[in-house]
Amino acid sequence: MNLNGLSNTKTKEKHPVKRRYYDFLLGLVCVFLLAGPMVQASPSTTPSEEEVFALIGARLELMPAVAHFKAANGLAIEDLEREQVVLQQAIRDAEQAGLNPDSVRAFFIAQIAAAKTIQYRERALLLFADRVPDPPDLTGEIRPRLLELGSEFVVSLEAHLQQEGLLQASDLPAFLEVVDHLHLNRQERETLFRDLIGIQLAE
User: Fold this and answer.
1) Most C-beta atoms within 10 A of its C-beta, which of 12, 118, 143, 183?
2) How far apart are CA 62 and CA 93, in angstroms?
3) Is residue 159 classed as helix, strand or coil in its secondary structure?
4) The CATH number of 16-38+48-196 is which of 1.10.238.10, 2.30.290.10, 2.60.40.1730, 1.20.59.10?
5) pLDDT per residue as tens, the chain (203 positions)
């Protein structure tokens, strides 16, 4: 569409970088929604720390799509009722997997805070976007996948801790390399990592 009404004159696209970003983002979201379990459980294979970190990253990569859906449907970023659902599921997963539920709950609280930070910053970008891809359905597609990723994370982390021991501060560089989101700065990712290495096996 020619916004100046000059039908015979081609106009330069206003924000090609933003357009490419949103096209890339939509493709990325589709990959994560359609993907099966990211870590295949096997009695002879222990998930690596990078695989565990990747599950955290995959969850955070879905947050811009959450922000798009909420913006399109007039929903607030913060949803305390939904946060409780996520925390309760995390505690159940931790108890079943053999992780200390209090330490898992603390990490998921930090992860929820990071997720909301991403959503707020993505929503600010929408104010300047020429167009935004239609987001997947939050209730039917995104949220079920988020819960799956959360459960995969808990199971994979328990298997890793059983075989390799607790995560250490020295694992931070690997974490920062894997969990590298446009809307989270280094300090925010380090905060998330500190809560991650606090997760312990159940006594």
Assistant:
1) 118
2) 21
3) helix
4) 1.20.59.10
5) 333 333 333 334 444 444 444 444 444 444 445 455 554 444 458 999 999 999 999 999 999 999 999 999 999 999 999 999 999 999 999 999 999 999 999 999 999 999 999 999 999 999 888 877 788 999 999 999 999 999 999 999 999 999 999 999 999 999 999 999 999 999 999 999 999 999 999 99
